[in-house]
Amino acid sequence: MAGNDKNPAGSRYDRLTRNLYRSGGYVFAAKAEDIARQHGISRVARLASNENPWPPSAAAVREGCEALKGANRYPDESMATLTGALARFHGDYCFVTGVGMDGVIETVIRTLVSPGDRVAVSVPTFSFYRLAALAQAAEVVEIPREPDFPVNTGLFIDQARDAKVSFLCSPNNPTGTVTPAEEVREILSGISGILFLDNAYVEFSDSDYLPLMKEFDNLVIGRTMSKAFALAGARVGYAVVPGWLVPFYQRAATPFTLNTVSASAAAGALEDRAGMERYVAYVREWRKRFREECALPSCPSGANFVMFDTAPATGDEMVRLLAEKGVIVRSCASFPGLPDRYIRVSVGDEWENELFLSAITGICRSRA
Predict the structure, then answer these.
(1) What is the model's pLDDT at position 213?
(2) By three-state DSSP, how is residue 330 classified?
(3) Distance between CA atoms of residues 126 and 114, nearest Å
(4) Rounded to an integer, what distance in angstroms lies between the CA atom of residue 231 and that of residue 226?
(5) Which of 71, 81, 142, 290 is deepest in the core (most CB within 10 A)?
C-alpha cells in the first residue's frame, strides 16, 4: 500500500516536500549503543550531548510521579504550577514555557517573524536558530564572531540593527564563550528588534543577565531544565520575557505542548537549589581538569563542556579515534562558522571523564 512507503523520495509525493527539508536538518550525536556494538565495548562514555550524568532530584521524581496520576486530563494551559515555581526561584519576572528550548525558540519565531523578515544569528553556534528561522521563511543573516570566539559587538549591532529577531548564545554552544552582560546591554541599546539570549548553560557561569530584563523590553532570555536540573528527557524549556510579549506568545503556541508530568517534575527540581549547585560545582572542577590535563588546545568555557582544537586532525577523525576507545564526543563540523578541527566534550560521570582523559592522552602521544 502507498501509505506504507517509508522512502517516498522520487515518488509522486516527493514534489510535495519543501525544498528546505530535502536535505540537511539537525545533526545528532552518535548513539552510545551503536558505538558499543561497532567496537565490541560493553560500556561507553557519553560525552557528546551536554547531558547531566546525575539523575533528577528526588523532588523532581516525586512531583512527576504524582502528576502522572492525573495524566488522563489535559494540562493547565497557563502552566501556573511551573511558572509559580520559576517566579519563586528567579524572582518577579514574566515566564513562558515550551517543549525544550527548541520549542520556545520556534514559538518566539512564529510569534514575531513573517516570511522575508530578517533573523540575525551570531555564529558559530547552535544550529537550530537558523533551522527554525528558515522554517518560518525568514532571511537568515549569520554574524561571525572574532577568531577566538568573542562577539564583535559593533559588527553584531551593524548586522542585526534592523533584524526582527537576533540570536545570541551565552555561554555559547559549542565554544563555551561567555558574553559579558555589559556587551549584551550595548547590543540591546543598538538594535530595534528582539534579542533572544540563549542561557541554556548560564548556571555553569558567573554571569547574571536577568537584571537586564528591568532595563529593556526587547530582551527574551531562553532557559532550560535539561542541563543543570537533569531533565533532558522531560523536555522543559522556558523563557523570561517582557510582559507585552506574553499574550502574543500564548496565541502563537501550539495548544497543550508541555505535558503535566514534565512541568510538575520541573517545578519539583526547582525546589532543590542545593542539589543543582552541587552539580555546578562538580562541573566546574572537571571543566578545569579537562583544560589542564588534556594536551589539545581548548577554549575558556562557562558551560558544562569544553571545546578542543584537534588540528592537524579533523574533528570527525578525532571523534572516530575516541569512539574506538569507548568515548563519544561531538564533532563541531556541523556548527555553522566552524572549520572541521574542533570537538566538544561534555563533563560526564567521573569514570567517563577519566576515560576521556586517558584516551585523549594516548591518542595525542601516539600522534606526537
Answers:
(1) 98
(2) strand
(3) 22
(4) 4
(5) 290
Do residues 179 and 163 make contact, with C-beta atoms less than 8 angstroms apart?
no
pTM of the full structure? 0.91
- The CATH number for 339's domain is 3.90.1150.10
Distances (CA, A) of 123 to 61, 174, 233, 312, 329: 37, 10, 27, 23, 21
Place of cell 542539589: 275
First-last CA distance in the chain: 58
In a domain, 250, yes or no: yes
* Residue 354, CA distances (Å) to 104, 293, 295, 319, 349 in order: 35, 10, 14, 17, 9
- Unique residue bearing C-alpha cell 551570531: 122
Per-residue confidence band for 1, with pLDDT thresholds at 50, 70 and 90? very low
What distance in Å separates the CA atoms of residue 280 and residue 17, rounded to the nearest whole number?
44
Q: Which three cell numbers stand for residue 29?
A: 550525536
Q: Say what angle helices 128-135 and 100-112 make with each other, to 10 degrees.
A: 40
Cβ-based neighbours of 58, under 8 Å, separated by 6 or more = 272
Q: Give which of 248, 143, 240, 149 is closest to 199, Cα–Cα.
A: 240
Q: Which of 271, 287, 307 is the last residue of a domain?
A: 271
In this prediction, residue 38 has a pLDDT band, given cuts at 50, 70 and 90, of confident
Domain count of the fold of the chain: 2
* Residue keyed to cell 519543501: 18
Q: Are 229 and 336 contained in the same domain?
A: no
Whole domain around residue 331: which residue ranges? Answer: 27-54+274-367
Over residues 116-143, the pLDDT tens digits come to 999 999 999 999 999 999 999 999 999 9
Distance of CA 82 to CAs 227, 271, 295, 362, Å?
17, 11, 44, 47
Which residue type sits at 333?
A
At 180, list the grid cell: 559579558
- Give me the amino acid identity at 184: V
Instruction: State yes or no: pLDDT of 354 exceeds 50.
Output: yes
Cβ-count burial 195-215 (b if 16+ within 10 Å, e if not): bbbbbbbbbbbebebbebbee
Can you give the length of the chain in residues?
368
CATH code for the domain of 172? 3.40.640.10
